Amino acid sequence: MGFRLLLTDAFGGTFSINVYGAGRDGWFVASRRDIESRDSGWRVLKKGEWPTLINLIDQCCGFWGLPEILPWPENTTVDDGEWLNLTGRDRERFHHIERFVWRERGLDTVVAFLRQISGLFPPPIPPTPPSEGVM
């Protein structure tokens, strides 16, 4: 089984990751081309990451049942945005979706997870709690 994610921003910067797996094991290759150009090289997924990805694909976003393209909202103009292409292949099924700007909420979770495991992006900065007495 395998998946390929390609994100393209309004300036032509890209992030792509190909993730493959079987059973509980998986591996990936990723690249980032924007302000910096980096490649992950061939990497093994950490324990639990492949089953987590499969759960996100199947349960969180329902990938296999999503329409290939979403209808464009009426009376809408967009000057720039992010393209998302996600392709999946299982033994007997193949599915590909494309999204521009608008996408299902579960897809954001899949994208965040894939960005995280790639190691090509800094970890998110946790919010700092307000100090006592500060309004």
Summarize the structure in words.
With 135 residues, this protein is of the alpha+beta class. It has a single domain, classed as 2-Layer Sandwich (Mago nashi protein). 19% of the residues lie in helices and 33% in strands. It has two helices and seven strands, in the order βββββαββα. Strands 1, 2, 3, 4, 5, 6 and 7 form a seven-stranded antiparallel β-sheet that branches. Helix 1 runs antiparallel to helix 2. The longest helix is centred in the last third of the chain and has 14 residues, at 105-118. It is globular, with a radius of gyration of 17 Å. 19% of the residues are buried. The model has no long low-confidence stretch (mean pLDDT 90).
Mean pLDDT rating: 90
- DSSP strand tally: 7
CATH class: Alpha Beta
Gross geometry: globular
Report how far the terminal alpha carbons are from each other: 52 Å
Subunit organisation of the chains: single chain
SSE arrangement, N to C: EEEEEHEEH
CATH topology: Mago nashi protein
Largest sheet: 7 strands, antiparallel
C-alpha-based Rg, rounded: 17 Å
Binned, the helix content reads: 10-25%
Low-confidence stretches: none
Number of helices: 2
Beta-strand share of residues:
25-35%
Number of domains: 1
CATH architecture: 2-Layer Sandwich
Q: Provide the structure class.
A: alpha+beta
